[in-house]
Amino acid sequence: MAVRRPGSPDDGERGSAVVDFVLVSVLVVVLLLAVLQVAVYVHVRNVVVAGAQEGARFAANADVPVSEATGRTLAVVARATTEQTADGLQCTAAEEVDATGLTLVTVRCAGAVPTLLAGLGDVLPLEVTGRAVEEAP
């Protein structure tokens, strides 16, 4: 083992690898959490869009009232994600007439996507719409 002198040029760099590791590790963890949060947001958004479309298709049937669309939408979202995510959504259903004269069932859902860090709360807004053409009775 070599003996080091107190005035050697290596003394200024001693311990810098530990500091570099900590700084880079923090950056990598933050980037990983950001990528995971984007993945969660996209997944929940896709599930809510599919739920709104399913609710609109369900209510567009000839023998189903439009008011049933929101319940079906929330059931699909709760089954695919969690009850808490479904409870955080406010969905409305209505009949609309488009420019061509078709009657559409429209389901609109608004809410927030849960964050990975629980202390931040629900800071990612979500607003989706699903439509289906109403069947004639």
From TrEMBL:
Where would I find the TadE-like domain in this sequence? 15-57
Membrane spanning residue stretches = 21-44
- Origin superkingdom: Bacteria
- Keyword annotations of the record: Membrane, Transmembrane, Transmembrane helix
**A Pfam family the protein falls into:** TadE
Which InterPro entries does the record match to this protein? Answer: TadE-like_dom
Q: Does the keyword Transmembrane helix apply?
A: yes
Q: Report what the protein is called.
A: TadE-like protein
